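pasting for ref
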Amino acid sequence: MARTKPVTWYMATPADGVIELSRQAAVPVNLADAVGQVIDHPTPCRTKWFDESGFSYFRMVKRVGEALQDTGIWPVTWPVRLWIVEPVGDTGNWSPRHYPYRLLAHQIRVLAETDAWPVLGAGGREVLDVIEHQIPERALQWAADWDADSEGMRERCWNWQLCGGRNSGSGTWARSVAHATAYAQRESAAQWWSQRLAGDTVDKVLAGSGVSQLAVSYARRRAADLATAAQHQARFDAYVLDTLRGVDLDTPAPVAA
């Protein structure tokens, strides 16, 4: 008889370990203080499983790439913390058809804290490397390229987005492939989060630099696509990855004869 693989359930919190929705509901629940313990929900909903307040039940997922979905954490920040938990007692789901990876409970046991990078997808380590070590330097160059020739870069971006270039496909196509893949792999929250972390890094790097707002917007788009390529780098071939990385946008424009 085949053995059923045990299910691992995850919850994500900000760096202090407090479930953000519980903080907003003024009944803070700190998972960091409860490792190895069973926690009762402080304000459980009476009609299972409906939101009667902003924090009606514990939310956990078995697909770690969706662990940052519906956490209430805002603004997007890093680091976060990832916890392995176990549901205790009755459990439910808003819709098993649409949310087969999610579980709701009024009681959980906090088993352990684990590495947080998987919340950014299978390529979470690579995403963090891009955000922390590549984007800060490249953001300056992207912005400088835009402001040096805004009309030329606008045209090149338009062509890249709709038609592609010599070495890559169209940006719209590559982004749609990434979006569909993230959904299929249950990493939509991971992709959303990493793109915003990338954009926020650009904002910090370019703050006070004197570049135009359009240059900042261009750099944010490039950073988001670069982070997406990192998330899916083991899944896509070079053609898709180079499109997301914008290799044709970084290649000097041909000089007219």
